[in-house]
């Protein structure tokens, strides 16, 4: 480990990471140790990241973080894998959380525990990977949680007000609200009550609400058992029986983009998506955007 790399960790912990554009021509980079960072945020999040890293680069004279946008998580991960094989991986990369164990097992992540300040970051236990590796011995910290998003319910404030509905806080209330908000004429639907990408991320949330667990403490996979089935049944009933939920077309994050666009265009009254899109939806909607925790079940 070099002193420069330690300084990078301290700086990124303070500046919360980020990205810049056009940094190859930035006079601030001259005479400094250059460190590459690949990131996946676009839109408003990208703008914030770029400002953050620019502040870090301006705050000291030893290290220059050269950040590059690499597309969404799936695109960035494909590029990262190729770069690792080619021996040209960046010093730091922004990846979706679930791939961290795979990268660690491949031996391509450097332990961070020994860096000055790593033990003083005050990470929430679950985000600090505590209990991630079971049932084997503790493993080192190999990644820092950054801007972790959570699934959330968004709704069109005007539509709910017009329908005189309250925000659904249970699965049953969600189904009832989706029925009231769906606008159908024959086989044509102009507004869906609910739209949600069919993703493991939302299924995990539903499964947890039904009281399930992905794994036992000894590492045995449970996949929610009956609760995992109940989560899928909720989707099936809303899609096939109620015909109030649209599973958006598209693969990977394309489906998420379709969900956001349908919501902004008034084709979906309620959507499940990430907290990361809050500012984007607020800035682009022509109606009041409201948000709440996902409607619950047993939990």
Written overview of the protein:
With 299 residues, the chain is α/β, with parallel strands linked by helices. The chain has 10 helices and 9 strands. Strands 4, 5, 6, 7, 8 and 9 form a 6-stranded mixed beta sheet that branches. A 3-stranded parallel beta sheet has the order 2-1-3. Helix 2 links the parallel strand 1 (33-39) and strand 2. Helix 1 packs across helix 2 (43-59) and helix 7 (200-209) crosses helix 8. Residues 1-24 have low confidence and may be disordered.
What is the overall silhouette?
A: globular
DSSP helix fraction: 25-40%
CATH architecture identity of the largest domain: 3-Layer(aba) Sandwich
- Kindly provide the name of the CATH class of the largest domain: Alpha Beta
Proportion of strand residues = 15-25%
Total of domains = 2
Low-confidence stretches: 1-24
Distance between the termini: 45 Å
- Summarize the biggest pleated sheet: 6 strands, mixed
* Classification by helices and strands: alpha/beta
Taking all residues together, what is the mean pLDDT?
84
Number of helices: 10
- Total strand segments: 9
Order of helix and strand elements from N to C terminus: HEHEHEHEHHEEHHEHEHE
What name does CATH use for the topology of the largest domain? D-Maltodextrin-Binding Protein, domain 2
Rg for CA atoms: 22 Å
CATH superfamily of the largest domain: Periplasmic binding protein-like II
């Amino acid at each position: 480990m070099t002193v420069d790399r330690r300084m990078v960790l301290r700086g990124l912990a303070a500046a919360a990471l980020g990205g810049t554009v056009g940094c190859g021509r930035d006079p601030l980079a001259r005479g400094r140790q250059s460190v590459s960072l690949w990131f996946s945020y676009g839109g408003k999040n990208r703008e914030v990241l770029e400002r953050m890293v620019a502040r870090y680069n301006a705050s000291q004279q030893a290290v220059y973080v050269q950040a590059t946008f690499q597309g969404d998580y799936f695109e960035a991960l494909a590029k990262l894998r190729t770069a690792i094989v080619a021996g040209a991986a960046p010093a730091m990369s922004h990846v979706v959380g679930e791939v961290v164990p795979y990268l660690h097992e491949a031996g391509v992540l450097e332990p961070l525990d020994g860096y000055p300040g790593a033990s003083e970051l005050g990470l929430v236990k679950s985000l600090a990977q505590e209990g991630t590796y079971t049932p084997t011995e503790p493993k080192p910290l190999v990644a820092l949680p950054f801007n972790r998003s959570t699934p959330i319910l968004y709704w069109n404030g005007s539509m709910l007000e017009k329908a005189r509905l309250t925000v659904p806080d249970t699965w049953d209330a969600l189904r009832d609200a989706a029925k009231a908000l769906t606008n159908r004429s024959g086989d044509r639907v102009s507004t869906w009550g609910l739209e949600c990408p069919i993703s493991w991320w939302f299924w995990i949330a539903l499964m947890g609400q039904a009281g399930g667990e992905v794994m036992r403490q000894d590492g045995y996979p449970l996949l929610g058992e009956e609760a995992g089935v109940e989560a899928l049944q909720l989707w099936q009933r809303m899609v096939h029986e109620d015909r109030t939920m649209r599973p958006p077309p598209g693969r990977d994050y394309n489906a998420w983009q379709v969900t956001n666009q349908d919501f902004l265009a008034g084709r979906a009254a309620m959507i499940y998506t990430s907290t990361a899109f809050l500012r984007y939806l607020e800035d682009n909607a022509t109606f009041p955007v409201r948000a709440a925790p996902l409607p619950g079940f047993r939990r």
